Amino acid sequence: MQSAKELVLRCLWVCTEAEPAPAPAPYPAVAPAVAPYPALAPALAPATSDGLQAFFLGLNKRLADDDDAGRSGNLVTSPLSVYAALSLVAAGAREGTLDELLRVLGAPSRDFLAGHVRALAEHVLADGSRTGGPRVSFACGVWHDSTTLLRPAYRTAAAESYKAVARSANFRQEPEEAREQINAWVAAATNDLIPSILSPGALSSCTVLVLANAIYFKGKWEKPFDKELTEDGKFHRLDGTAVDAPLMRGLGRHSIACHDGFKVLQLRYVQGRSSPGQPQPPPIYSMCVFLPNARDGLWGLTDKIARDPGFLRKHLPCDDVLVGDFRLPKFKVSFGVTMKGILQDMGLKEAFELGKADLSDMVEDGAGKLALHKIVHRAVIEVNEEGTEAAAATVATMILCSYSVRPRVDFTADHPFAFFVIEEVSGTTLFAGHVLDPTTN
């Protein structure tokens, strides 16, 4: 028996079979255009995506193991949002600071990061709502103090590779007004699922630069659940107690794989239609629920997942099976965290050190030396009979250091479990988290 708070909402992950693309030009030139999907840049090929997946899973594992975060309650994150924000930082980093960022992100170069994020934004995370698919949005933003000039090369790279619009803000004299502007941008980019990410006092007159990323997803199930079949049932928590939770019930055939010690359920979302002349197929999104057989088996399962970057891909179901007892809880989870300590534990240290960080490719000479001050992350997800709605945002603030006839398969998710919303063609993880108790928000 367990504490019902584990639903590792692990990310919409994207890893695509790819043909070699032209080698990127030396920075500050923007990375070459992405080839038609699914023949994307090599950055999205499975071999290189495993390095990125290692960052996604490593970050999520550290959050899940944190006594003040995942161990104490439900968890949802978007490692992809953190990855995009740090990639935007790397676009202006040099020397040891850049080397450290690349090592933590599992990337060989700054151009690789730019090409990978641009491929995701233009192809995998393109909005599919106009053709009947999930509504998806991906946005980045840059705010610089009105007294500080961005380097033209950085402004161009941010716009062309990260779709980031650069804006001037009066951090020095009106930091609270600037904070409200950034919060409003996040709210708009996440369809108001995250109305605020920066708390009062988060910015000050010492703030010089703010970088942000936001991701939004809303998809309907290919096989929606019947609301009339949803009823309260026991959900067993890790501490041995149980709580009444609304459990959705499924009938017929579902995509389930049975492995040693756990099962995997894959629920597809309605996919968009291909348009005439469209050079690439639409993305394929699904949610994957990793359910340990033992009621207290979630932590052991998440340890296995974190050790092997290809674990998710290797254990997805191959076909549908008839289900017997099929129950899955409805849930809504929100989570927020300051990432500095976690990222420092992962090896990102120099970027936070005043006087040592080298982010000199961001701003013009004479502005002083920049250093990361804090990185804030928030994520929200809601799963019900109709589908899934989720959003995440990451904000990085900087200061100047001058400042066969098979048997029916039961899938009874009445105890903590892990789940993943994935884009199947490319394989990149967007969101991650866990639920220990589906009745708490």
TrEMBL record:
Gene3D superfamilies: Alpha-1-antitrypsin, domain 1, Antithrombin, subunit I, domain 2. CDD domains: serpinP_plants. Pfam families: Serpin. One of its GO terms (cellular component) is extracellular space. Residues 57-438 form the Serpin domain. One of its GO terms (molecular function) is serine-type endopeptidase inhibitor activity. PANTHER family: SERINE PROTEASE INHIBITOR, SERPIN (PTHR11461), SERPIN DOMAIN-CONTAINING PROTEIN (PTHR11461:SF316). Belongs to the serpin family. This is Serpin domain-containing protein. It comes from Hordeum vulgare subsp. vulgare (Domesticated barley). The lineage of its organism: Eukaryota, Viridiplantae, Streptophyta, Embryophyta, Tracheophyta. The gene is LOC123411534.
